[in-house]
Amino acid sequence: MLLLYCYLQWLGGSIWVTYASITDKAISYYSTNANIVNLFTLSFLILQFPMAPLSSIVFRKSYYWTMMISFIISAIGAWIRYIAEKNIFLALLGHVLIGAINSLTLSGCAVLAKLWFDEKDRSIPIAIGSTSNLLGCAYGLVISPYYSSIPSLLLTQSIYTTLACLFNILFSHKALINPCSNNLSLTYKFELELLYKDKYLLLLIFFISSGLGIAYTLTGIIYQLLESSGISEIQAGWIGFSMYVGGTFGGLLSSVLVVKTKNYVKPLRFYSILSMIGVGTWAFVSSDFFSGVVGSAFTGFGLFGIMPLGIEIVIEHNKFISEAITTNLVYLIAQGLSVIFTYPIIYCHELLGFSGLWLSLILCVFIMIALILTYNTSDIESNRELSQSLALNLNPN
């Protein structure tokens, strides 16, 4: 089941960044402008707003049927993109279907871990599931420039999406437990009320999501970000690839550190500091391809490495709130902030004369310092006790 989930997230990631490293080619093919082409990337981020609340509901009903329908709709969306040819609005419709499913199932890694793994073993599957999307993005960024035509690229995506759908039909099976049960058997309404009243948890989610939002922005506009530095589409694809691969290793390592040390504070500080160093290094060397590959890899290691670690932190902080709700909120805020960050970072060079990576560094430093100051041992314990007391007081049973 973990492999099937990873396959869905991998293909979603690869399709999300289809045009991120070949923006000029997409502009020519669809006879449009960069702002319209950017909608292909931004649609995945925007769709998190309606899909995140729905995700928390449908995963409570059935993980099996949520995933089954998701695979089918993804395959339909992929073929619509291919059949649309140069009709950009029909192509965008197919892309939106896949983006909706990607947003709907992002939180599934935490739900899956609860369904099929013991509590002490959940860190690794959460890390694997949450980073599988990054590997898809890495593949998508690096492979797109090598296709001679966009139709052949879209056909390939349609084929492997259909294969994923068939594999899921053949090999998926239902779990024996309710994915969102907890000790108090709280209703969805009461879990949302708990979340709303837990200000410390909301603050943690915001800062963790903000770092992830910067990472999403940088990779989603990778070619436009680096074009002014003389980087080609193929080179931009490889730089984005290195960022996602770095993020995958960073995410897996963060979970291993948690398993070994049974501690979240030190790994979070390590990744926060590394994120600032990574973005700063990349900004200094962005005009050189090989140095940019190294800088983006460190950036991805830090910013994306926080993702599975952050998901575990927010789940662990308040266990009375289902995994689907807190995980969805992390992704919702991250992708919402990514939409906000996108155009200021794109036009930073044109308006202010310096690379958008420097603006990203300013944002990263502010966010990571705030996260380090917020997440400390004394505040964690005191606020966790408050959360438990609040949950008991609000228990409808």
Automatic annotation (TrEMBL):
<keyword id="KW-0812">Transmembrane</keyword>
<dbReference type="GO" id="GO:0022857">
    <property type="term" value="F:transmembrane transporter activity"/>
</dbReference>
<feature type="transmembrane region" description="Helical">
    <location>
        <begin position="88"/>
        <end position="112"/>
    </location>
</feature>
<keyword id="KW-0472">Membrane</keyword>
<dbReference type="InterPro" id="IPR049680">
    <property type="entry name" value="FLVCR1-2_SLC49-like"/>
</dbReference>
<feature type="transmembrane region" description="Helical">
    <location>
        <begin position="327"/>
        <end position="346"/>
    </location>
</feature>
<dbReference type="InterPro" id="IPR036259">
    <property type="entry name" value="MFS_trans_sf"/>
</dbReference>
<feature type="transmembrane region" description="Helical">
    <location>
        <begin position="63"/>
        <end position="82"/>
    </location>
</feature>
<feature type="transmembrane region" description="Helical">
    <location>
        <begin position="153"/>
        <end position="171"/>
    </location>
</feature>
<feature type="transmembrane region" description="Helical">
    <location>
        <begin position="352"/>
        <end position="375"/>
    </location>
</feature>
<keyword id="KW-1133">Transmembrane helix</keyword>
<dbReference type="Pfam" id="PF07690">
    <property type="entry name" value="MFS_1"/>
</dbReference>
<feature type="transmembrane region" description="Helical">
    <location>
        <begin position="30"/>
        <end position="51"/>
    </location>
</feature>
<feature type="transmembrane region" description="Helical">
    <location>
        <begin position="268"/>
        <end position="285"/>
    </location>
</feature>
<feature type="transmembrane region" description="Helical">
    <location>
        <begin position="124"/>
        <end position="147"/>
    </location>
</feature>
<feature type="transmembrane region" description="Helical">
    <location>
        <begin position="238"/>
        <end position="259"/>
    </location>
</feature>
<dbReference type="GO" id="GO:0016020">
    <property type="term" value="C:membrane"/>
</dbReference>
<feature type="transmembrane region" description="Helical">
    <location>
        <begin position="200"/>
        <end position="226"/>
    </location>
</feature>
<protein>
    <recommendedName>
        <fullName>Major facilitator superfamily (MFS) profile domain-containing protein</fullName>
    </recommendedName>
</protein>
<feature type="transmembrane region" description="Helical">
    <location>
        <begin position="297"/>
        <end position="315"/>
    </location>
</feature>
<dbReference type="InterPro" id="IPR011701">
    <property type="entry name" value="MFS"/>
</dbReference>
